[in-house]
């Protein structure tokens, strides 16, 4: 199929596409703040109308929280071709601290920068700008060809930035309607801001909070110091025991089930020539701090971690206070990789802590969230098709990459709907998502749209 | 000398002595709160007038803070006998939380309790009730004998509960006037609330605050976790390294100069039959947590400690946050014993921390206070005389004890005025000093006065 007419239309229509995106960005759809509930509904309605204008059967579907946008486009009468679901989210992060913004967050505009023009405004990269890349691709394709090449479902969430409380119930209640051959999730970025990337490994997450209890009240360190156990001291010992001297996690059984990287992935990642000096240098560091026998990308993508995210106990005000506190606390998260069972690891962590407690000390555990790691089946034909399409558009081979963080939606498509998911997107590392002055490169938007046109063509076969 | 007439007078005068104490307790001389400055001055004036009524040349001496009460009683014309200074403090702790008091803190009264009558009110035990024991002893002695047996100086401070900012300058400016053969400090308690005690060892104190710096900003643990160093992890390792598995402090050189207990002290302390099970049991503990080869009393009185009094870093709010913080903090204090130099130990601690820092991590130290341990020269004749007097009054041998905390005044008499100091007092462990419902046993007050009568007699020779 000759894609040039469609791609040319994308190029010609870019100014209008930008105007549409700016219109959507002007709606302050902050999902976590109830004061913006009407704006969230307005953003959903705007998307419904836009999708209807392209020929989708679209509606905003109520939930206990913000609405879901669901839109269907029927494929050819013979039902040939795949059925692909496209996911994005129309809600955005809060904007504080407002005084750090160089312009009003919901008064978006195109700005010239040293790296080229960008669309500045809350939600431009996360995720309105990204979800509009596939919608604009549908629009251009439809305008040029009269119809889309196969059956498409669009599923846009409005609670991604506020914990997605309605997502799983909605998926379950509408499973038959939502189920497709594959979910395309457009909420990630380019690798090192330049290489098109498909995320194939996502780390899981396990959260724990522990409280070490010692004496039954705060004690004076003069009167009791030396004879009374100090819970902070116990907490330090316990937490210091989580890693050995080589950076390896020392909880017995922690690595059970962890697999080595496949040769294909290892060679893929090596070819990325990851600049870890620049990556760490940006945040004032120089030496990778993980397991000494692993590469930096392994540390970030395919190896589990144990981190203390918060610690507190005793007197933390100004000056000095000679207190032996009754208790000490820490919040931890573990990043998990494929093969690790979060609930099993929770028990192993707790057993490891309990085994180290001296007399007179008790521990209290509080469970935070647990989600397993995700690993995509890259031999799915759509992965190779998408990879080829991205490589073509960006002029360099698209990479299969890992992601150190957790993107729960990918797992939910699998567990709730039995679908594989493919994560790709066009964000830059410096897009300031979740921060003031969020932006999205015009190039990301433009080439993102063109990328989806190519993906549609490849998937249509 | 037949002391019975004086002791009988003490007994007979007890109701009037209690009334005087209650009057003093009604003055809310909270030194730390400027709103009570006039009350502090009023308490000083009350004491001046009372001492004048016994024949002292007394005055309230202005300082940049609250006044000092200084009073002199000249000894016999032939200057025979010692010159003894008596120290106490007329200021009191704040009273909050007020709602935990069973009566208004400055509306004192005698209350019957299961353990006998007590004087309830702020300052009753710390230190107004105690300082009035020696003043009442002077009164009774003078009333019975016409004059006091030797030269006496009374020195009462009004800033003990607020860091004594004026104390050292005042001592220096008035050194010649204040210098005596010995200072009697009445601000301590009975051992285990029953054995009369003279404190002969006081631990010193060294305070340090450390901040571990890692990345130049807070990082997301998904994006950076595994490759970026976590300052909390470093802090845990450093703090966990302060003690070895036997409870011994592992800072190189930390025990340099620490002396073993003398045979006399060891046998003294053994004879006390310290009930450490009850001591620890009161606060929910059972096993002494210090060096495993030391007795509980050594842990508390004659061995140094290293304690983390406060620790904080990262996210400490509700729920979970996947942050790798830019820094982590801890406040520490070390209890020191004779032979240890605080400033030398500060450097040893800092070197120990620095030696453990991995790449990319820096540490910032902030010094809190440093004061050496104190050890009294118990072969001073006054110690034996006082001990004999106390043993006589209380019907059981008075003990030479240690004190795990720091009482800086004793050291100041030595360093500023070249005087030895003797610490004794009649408080109970459950007097609730610094807490709501402070009390002082009527027995402590009564037998305290009688004790001082006996001490005066012994010191007069």
Automatic annotation (TrEMBL), chains A, B:
Key words of the record: Hydrolase, Metal-binding, Protease
Domain of life: Bacteria
Peptidase M20 dimerisation domain segment(s): 202-360
UniProt cross-references to InterPro entries, sorted A to Z: Cyt/Met_Dipeptidase (IPR051458), Peptidase_M20 (IPR002933), Peptidase_M20_dimer (IPR011650)
GO term, biological process aspect, one: proteolysis
MF annotations from Gene Ontology: metal ion binding; peptidase activity
PANTHER family given in the database record: BETA-ALA-HIS DIPEPTIDASE, SUCCINYL-DIAMINOPIMELATE DESUCCINYLASE
Protein name (Swiss-Prot/TrEMBL): Peptidase M20 dimerisation domain-containing protein
Organism placement in taxonomy: Bacteria, Pseudomonadati, Pseudomonadota, Alphaproteobacteria, Rhodobacterales
């Amino acid at each position: 199929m000759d894609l040039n007419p469609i791609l040319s239309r994308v190029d010609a229509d870019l100014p209008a596409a930008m105007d549409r995106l700016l219109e959507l960005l002007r709606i302050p759809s902050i999902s976590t703040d109830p004061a913006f509930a009407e704006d969230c509904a307005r953003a959903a309605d705007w998307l419904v109308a836009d999708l209807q204008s392209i020929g989708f059967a679209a509606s905003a579907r109520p939930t206990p929280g913000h609405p879901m946008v669901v839109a269907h486009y029927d494929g050819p009468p013979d039902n040939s071709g795949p059925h692909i679901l496209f996911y994005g989210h129309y809600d955005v992060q809060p904007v504080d601290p407002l005084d750090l913004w160089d312009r009003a967050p919901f008064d978006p505009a195109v700005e010239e920068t040293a790296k080229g023009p960008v669309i500045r405004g809350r939600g431009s990269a996360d995720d309105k700008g990204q979800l509009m890349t596939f919608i604009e691709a549908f629009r251009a394709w439809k305008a040029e060809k009269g119809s889309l090449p196969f059956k498409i479902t669009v599923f846009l969430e409005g609670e991604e930035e506020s914990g997605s409380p309605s997502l799983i119930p909605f998926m379950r209640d509408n499973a038959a309607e939502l189920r497709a051959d594959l979910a395309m999730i457009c909420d990630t970025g380019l690798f090192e801001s330049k290489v098109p990337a498909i995320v194939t490994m996502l780390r899981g997450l396990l959260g724990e909070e522990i409280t070490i209890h010692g004496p039954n009240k705060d004690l004076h360190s003069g009167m009791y110091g030396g004879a009374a156990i100090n819970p902070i001291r116990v907490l330090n010992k316990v937490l210091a025991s989580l890693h050995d001297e080589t950076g390896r996690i020392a909880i017995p059984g922690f690595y059970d089930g962890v697999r080595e990287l496949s040769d294909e992935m290892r060679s893929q990642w090596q070819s990325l020539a990851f600049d870890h000096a620049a990556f760490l240098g940006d945040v004032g560091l120089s030496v990778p701090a993980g397991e000494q026998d692993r590469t930096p990308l392994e540390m970030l993508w395919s190896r589990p971690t144990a981190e203390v995210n918060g610690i507190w106990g005793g007197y933390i005000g100004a000056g000095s206070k000679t207190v032996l506190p009754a208790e000490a606390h820490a919040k931890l998260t573990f990043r998990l990789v494929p093969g690790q069972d979060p609930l099993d690891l929770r028990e192993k962590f707790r057993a490891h802590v309990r085994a180290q407690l001296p007399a007179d000390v008790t521990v209290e555990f509080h469970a935070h969230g647990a989600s397993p790691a995700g690993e995509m089946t890259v031999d799915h034909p759509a992965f190779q098709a998408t990879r080829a399409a991205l490589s073509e558009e960006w002029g360099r081979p698209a990479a299969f990459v890992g992601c150190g963080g957790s993107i729960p939606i990918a797992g939910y498509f699998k567990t709730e709907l039995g679908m594989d998911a493919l994560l790709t997107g066009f964000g830059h590392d410096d897009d300031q998502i979740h921060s003031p002055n969020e932006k999205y490169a015009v190039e990301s938007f433009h080439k993102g749209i063109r990328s989806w046109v190519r993906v549609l063509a490849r998937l249509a076969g």
